[in-house]
Design brief:
Length: 415
C-alpha cells in the first residue's frame, strides 16, 4: 500500500499524484478524514500518556514529603482507564485507515506521462519491420481452425465460452513456447521456479489483487483460496513477511503457470479467439531488489521480453503507459505490443511494471539495510503470454494457402 507516514506528512503532495492516476476526489477526502482522525487519536493518547508520566513523578514527590496520595491515586487510576480507551480508539482508527488505504493504488512515478487511458500512451520505439503480404492475411482464429490447432467449440463443451483446446501442432507449439521462454529467461539470469496455482487471500492482498479485484478472481467455494490470475502472485509472495539479507538481492525468478481470470470488466471485448481467455498460459518474470537497483533491473526485464520477441522474429513496439492507464500496483509500466497482421494493429503481449515498495509494504518483504530494515522493490512482467504469442506466430508466419511456418528458434523444440 502507499506509505501512510508519507501520506500524513505530505497529504496534498500524495493526493496530487494519485489524482493523476484517476483516484476520485471523494476517495481522497475519505482518506484525508481517516488520516486526520488517526492523527487526533494519537495526540489524545500521547497527551494522556504524558499526564500519566507527570502524575507518576508526583507520586515520588508526595511520598518523599509524606503527603496523602489517595486523591492522586484516584486520578492516576482514572487516567489509566482513559489511556486504555484512547489506545483502543487509536487501534480502530489505524485499522480503518489501513483498510481504506488497501483500495488506494500506487503513486505513479514523476516521469510517467499524464493521460486518461491507452490512447494517451507514448510509443518508445518499434522493433523489427512487419512483413508485407502479397495476399490478405487471415486472423488467428481462422488459421487455428483451418489447421486444426485450436478447437474453440470443444472448449465451450468442457467449460464455457473463452476456454479452448489445443490439438496436434497447436499443443506442441504451446509446449515448445513455454520451454523456449523459460530457457531464454534462465540464460538472462532468471532462476526457474515452479509454484502452486492456488493461493490464499493474504498472497493476493500482498500483490494488490485484493480487495479491489475480487470479482475478477475464481474463488474456491467455502475456502479463502483462489486460482491465480498471474504467476506474479505466488512468486512475489514466496518472500512474504521475510527479512532478506542484502547479499540475497537481487532475486530474479521466472515461472510458467496457467492463469485464471473471470474478465469481469471485459464484457464484449475480444470474445472470439485467444486474445482474452478465462484460462491462459503465461511465463512470468519477477524481481525483488534493493531500491537503488530497481530502475536498472526494470530496464533489463523490458529488454529480456523484447529480445524474446525478436528471437521469435515477431515485430513489436514498446509503449510507455500514461498515468491513467497504469495498473493498480504499478508506479511505472512499459507494455510490449506485438504486430498482428490479421488485425493490422499492435496488441499487448507483455507488460513490465515496477511497483517500487507498494507490494513489499503490503506483503511485508524487507531487507537488512545497514542498521535498519527497509522495504524491497518488487517488479513483474510477462515474458510472455503464451496464447498471445501463438496468435502472433499464426498471423505473422501464415502462408497464402493458410499453412503456418514455425519460427526457426522453435524447430528443435518441436522436432
Amino acid at each position: 500500500m502507499i506509505d501512510l507516514k508519507l501520506l500524513q506528512k505530505d497529504f496534498q503532495g500524495v493526493s496530487d499524484k494519485l489524482v493523476r492516476k484517476g483516484v476520485s476526489v471523494e476517495l481522497l477526502d475519505s482518506l484525508k478524514k481517516k488520516s486526520e482522525e488517526l492523527k487526533t487519536a494519537k495526540v489524545d493518547y500521547e497527551t494522556l500518556q504524558a499526564a500519566q508520566n507527570t502524575m507518576s513523578k508526583e507520586f515520588g514527590i508526595y511520598k518523599k514529603e509524606g503527603k496523602d496520595v489517595s486523591e492522586l491515586k484516584a486520578r492516576v487510576d482514572a487516567n489509566k482507564i482513559k489511556i486504555t480507551e484512547a489506545l483502543e480508539v487509536q487501534r480502530i482508527k489505524q485499522e480503518e485507515l489501513e483498510s481504506l488505504a488497501m483500495s488506494i493504488p500506487n503513486i505513479p512515478d514523476d516521469d510517467v506521462p499524464d493521460g486518461e487511458d491507452e490512447n494517451d500512451n507514448i510509443e518508445i520505439r518499434k522493433v523489427l519491420t512487419p512483413r508485407e503480404f502479397n495476399f490478405t492475411p487471415k486472423e488467428h482464429w481462422e488459421l487455428a481452425e483451418q489447421n486444426g490447432w485450436i478447437d474453440f467449440e470443444r472448449g465451450v463443451k468442457l467449460a464455457t465460452s473463452r476456454f479452448s483446446v489445443s490439438f496436434g501442432m497447436g499443443a506442441k507449439l504451446e509446449r515448445a513456447l513455454i520451454n523456449f521462454m523459460l530457457n531464454f529467461n534462465s540464460k538472462r539470469g532468471f532462476e526457474e521456479v515452479s509454484v502452486p496455482s492456488i493461493v490464499n487471500r493474504a498472497a493476493l492482498e500482498g500483490t494488490g489483487q485484493l480487495p479491489k479485484f475480487e470479482d475478477d478472481l475464481y474463488k474456491i467455494e467455502d475456502q479463502e483460496l483462489f486460482l491465480i490470475p498471474t504467476a506474479e502472485v505466488p512468486v512475489t509472495n514466496l518472500f512474504q513477511d521475510e527479512i532478506l539479507s542484502p547479499n540475497q538481492l537481487p532475486i530474479k525468478l521466472t515461472a510458467y503457470t496457467s492463469c485464471f481470470r473471470k474478465e469481469a470488466g471485459a464484457a464484449g471485448r475480444d470474445t472470439r479467439g485467444m486474445i482474452r481467455q478465462h484460462q491462459f498460459h503465461k511465463v512470468e518474470l519477477v524481481s525483488i531488489t534493493k531500491p537503488e537497483d530497481s530502475d536498472k533491473i526494470f530496464d533489463e526485464m523490458v529488454q529480456t521480453a523484447s529480445d524474446l520477441l525478436s528471437a521469435l522474429e515477431l515485430p513489436h513496439r514498446l509503449v510507455n503507459l500514461c498515468s491513467g492507464d497504469l495498473g493498480f500496483g504499478a508506479a511505472k509500466t512499459v507494455d510490449l505490443e506485438v504486430w498482428l497482421p490479421g488485425q493490422a494493429t499492435y496488441r499487448e503481449i507483455s507488460s513490465v511494471s515496477n511497483t517500487r515498495e507498494f507490494q513489499a509494504r503490503r506483503a511485508k518483504i524487507r531487507f537488512k539495510d545497514e542498521n535498519k530494515n527497509s522495504f524491497v522493490h518488487t517488479l513483474n512482467g510477462s515474458s510472455l503470454a503464451v496464447g498471445r504469442t501463438m496468435v502472433a506466430i499464426m498471423e505473422n508466419f501464415q502462408n497464402e494457402d493458410g499453412s503456418i511456418t514455425i519460427p526457426k528458434v522453435l524447430e528443435s523444440y518441436i522436432n
